[in-house]
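Dissemination and training. As part of the outreach component of the grant, students in the summer workshop were shown how a complex can be specified as a set of sequence lines and then modelled as a single object. The example used during the hands-on session is reproduced here so that future cohorts can follow it. Participants entered these lines:
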Amino acid sequence: MLEFDGLRKSYGTNLVLDDVSFAVAPGQMYGFCGANGAGKTTTMRIALGLARADAGQVRWAGRTVDLEVRRRIGYMPEERGLYPKMPAAEQLEYFARLHGMNAAAAKKSAAELLDGMGLGERSKDALEKLSLGNQQRVQLAAALVSNPDVLILDEPFSGLDPTGVDALAGNLAERRSRGVPVLFSSHQLDLVERLCDAVGILAGGKMVASGTVDQLREREADRQLRVVIPGCDGGWARELDFAHVASDRDGEVLLQLDDPSRDQDVLSAAMAAGSVAQFGWRQPTLVEIFREAVAA
Amino acid sequence: MTSSRIVGLIARREIRTRLKDKGFIASSIFIIVLIMGSVVFQVLIQSGASNVSVGVVGGPQKLSSAITEQAAVFGLDASVTEYDDEADARQAVESEEIDAAVIDGESVVVNESLDDSLGAAIFGAVNGLVLAERLADAGVEPDILAPVSLDVSALQPAADEADEKGLVAFISILLLYTLLIFFGQFIAQGVVEEKASRVIEVLLAAVKPWQLLAGKIIGLGVLAFAQLVIIFAAGLGGASAFDVITVPGAAIATVVQVLGWFILGFTLVAALFAVCGALVSRQEDLQSVLLPMTLILVAALVLAITAGQNPTGTLAKVTSFIPVLSTMVMPVRVSTGSVAWWEIALSVVAMLVAIAATVRVGGRVYSGALLGKGGRVKMKDALATERVS
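and obtained this result:
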């Protein structure tokens, strides 16, 4: 378990993190969301020892994260950075060795990763000669090359085309299946919703929501019941005294119930009004959850 | 994983990267050629003074070989050409093919004036031969003229040796200065490169700032030291082959001493350059932060040259204890004057203390400044930013 426990950090009078706590389980993909400046990068940099928390700590497997533990973490910083003039393969081997691998294992791991990313033939080229997309691939490879126990990736998907996103997602899923906890931040909420087992939402330095996507959905106060009766006006719904209509358009009605357990009464009323094509609780998207959490 | 292994990995990367860098190799070769050139220049100046050529027309038999022998006594390397006719000999003097022409063992023709040593050699040679002839005519065996060999014991040995030591020390100091500036620049550039490319963020997630600093200093230090040894080996070899120096023992002692000071000086200067480099984020801003350091090194060079002229002066004495300056001043003092052992020890200790302090404070500045983003970091802010270790 990768635990962030009560992190607090301020720069001067500016409070950046205010008691941030959450945990990422082994084999879990955790999406870290929040507006720009919410404190995501600061949280991650504290875990990597690149910034110092005023209070709180980060633990991995019950142990406070120190340099030894950090060598087992794969990290991709928000601001990408590798040696521009150093060949890709040599570079990856170097980072693998700094993380404790021996020369042979480092060479093998670097070659496998580059081959897997379709960069096998470019492995001897200086990094600056690769396209930006390929440079980003090498950057990810640098985080993965030492076979880390934990992955912390800051905006790994930004700047990738859809093919690149799929390839990266596949890579991360593979690590997750080996029991590696994966923490990544992203602005692309649809992506987070699609990929992640759990989500944390940071707003103004506070953790305003954290849990699995389903848990967050259940927490959602304003759940809506969606009923579609093609060609039928929503007048039938407005007559219900235990529900009020949130939207009524082209036969699609969204209702909020005072008592959610009376959803079957709504169905009866709908069936009386016409031929029901669709009926069910509407799943709020992560975007909606995010908006509500941030607004709260 | 041990610190020494990490530092070793970092040092190895520095060495490999530099050896593949064409700019580094080209500048290294340039420095070696420059130093070799100055040695060759010394050779030419010195050999120009001791090589003479003499023309001989007529005169006693064996005059040519006698002149060569006598010239050798005065430390001259004479090449003698025999001419059949006086006009040819005069012509050769006029066109400066030869320094002097000896006519019939009676007169000497020169262009402007006769060099004292050469004059004495010619005079001695002619006199000796004429005297031998006269003695033979008088029935005396010429053996009577066989020279008596004398044992020489020096009470105050080796003024020459001190000169040679001084010369070697001067060239060494110049070399030291060039290499310190050269490698200091490379260290600072390497630091800025890591900062500008942001690779520093990935590095410092896995290694401590002091390990990175130490790895860089050791890596480039090995290259600098190797370069210095190559130059010294070629320089000493060349110089003794051309007889610029005749006492390799003394020169080697000076070289070993300079190498020792180089190790201390390089460590300190490299650490200072690295810390300066960490304060900026772009190569364009580098020169302005390096300027103070460069000026200190220039001052050290000037002080070392001054110390060579007046090794016992107060200025030389004081500056030979101040770290950085001492790197260049102390070797000059040691080679040109007599320095007490405790003075050397004190200077070395001061240097070690300065290195320890720089690495300690520098490590903090380094980590604080490295992680700062954009623009130029003030020393104060860099010190204030502490890192979890």
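Chain A touches chain B through 29 residues (CB under 8 Å). Students were then asked to discuss how this feature might be tested experimentally.
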